[in-house]
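Practice set, problem 2.
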Amino acid sequence: MVATLDLGREGDQLFQVLELVLGASMRQLLDAQSERGGPLPIPVALALLTQAARGLADAHAARSLTGQALDLVHRDVSPHNVLVGIDGRARLSDFGVARAAARVSQTESGELKGKLAYASPEQLRGDPVDARSDVFSLGIVAWEVLVGRRLFEADNPLAIVDKMTRQAIPRVDEMRPEVPASVADAVAAALVRGLDARLSSAAELAARLERGASEVGGLASTAEVAEVVRSLSGPWLSDIEQTIAARAQEASMASGRPRRTRWSRGAAALVALALAGWAVARWTRAADPPGAGVVEEAPSPAVVAAPRDPGPVGVAGAATDTPAVVEAPGSDPVPEGEVAEPARAAPAASGAR
């Protein structure tokens, strides 16, 4: 699953900070592969589906800090929400419409969440859903990834619903004979419309797909998947990488610029104040007439209060692209930039000549 890095509040809005997955969605990969002609290689397709099924199984098995089962249901499993990184790993994302049994506010009865063409029959009816609903949705994804086209496609939502409830679902190996029968059996078991007869868990689906992969040389390695992702991602992946590099450079320049600018100006001010103090001292001595009863003393040097280096005391940036450096100013006994008056000569004693 896509990792959640942080949670926060900005005013009245709650937000999540999620892991950045550099890669493409399963939908983008399928569309790009379709343009080239044909579906994904079977070992690659099975590797991605197995990883997605395991991630979904982990979500279904999630428990609270007290050990209570959360009974989490994703309700929006689709190729759009399976992200595949250039590290060759598939991650399930977008739990924004997920439902946990312990959540206080429940979705209103009959309200359909998720993408229509990937909804389970019980979702379409507005019935209560459990983990088996997600298994049906993942079964649709598996069918499309292995066959290379959409399972339920029509010009309008009503026609899609009609196909989802009435259309016979062809087996994967009928559409693509090179797919092992054991893999086609697993996908067919996930796509049973009757809830009680359907494959019971995403973990079981993952196990059956992995066993079936042995008939085609096993699952593709993460390196092989990564190569396919880079090959199909092409221009948009390059654009993302260039954007990230540009933002990183901007952040680096922005974090260094304020300190250099401030201290260069501060150094110039210190030099100017020191010279001004020295000039005042020289002018004071020159203004006294010779022999006016002044006891000669060496002029006191001007005292300049130099600001302390505050240094960075914190970095905020979990929810932003550019880290913000927060600085706390130091304090000095003498205000910054203040010049102490040069010492004047003491008046001569009475009667001195």
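Problem 2, part (b): a different protein.
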Amino acid sequence: MAVGEDANSGKKELATTPTKAQPKANLNTQKLRHSNTPMIGIVGGIGPMAGVDLYKQIVENTIAATDQEHLPVLLASLPNEITDRTSFLLGLTDKNPASALARVIMLLNNAGCTHVGIACNTAHAPQIYEPMVALLGIMGSRVELVHMIEEVIRQITLHPAQPQRIGILSTIGTYKTRIYQN
């Protein structure tokens, strides 16, 4: 992700590529914070290192000459709160992790995050993701969710070489739900 500045408003804006970006017309960064800078929230702890790696990728792909030019990021790593996604998808537990994921996202929402990414492929399975989005609507979430699967597919289709074969390392839950194939 990268940050660019809107020449008209002076607000910093997010982009998913490491270049300065044009602002998103519908991004209202004043909703929860007094700063003009969007804040990224990361739902981590579902593999614990996945959230750390996502944070590292954000830092490494942000164009910044000083510490202060980096994007504000909050990482919520609460592994004890979120039921194992694969166990749910395989029917080993009836407890859908969607409600716990929604609570963590609301924690980030209430802390002022404007964009939230979930650092877990398996959490994007429709059986988890769709109920989570519905709960967030009921809870009044204002964050823009970054859908990891859709972003990966979008980046692949934008690749100039148009790769024909893509390898995916995943949990059995991600594999069985075919979220990248569908």
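Answer key, part (b): DSSP finds six helices and six strands in the chain. Helices lie at 48-60, 85-89, 98-110, 126-139, 148-158, 172-177.
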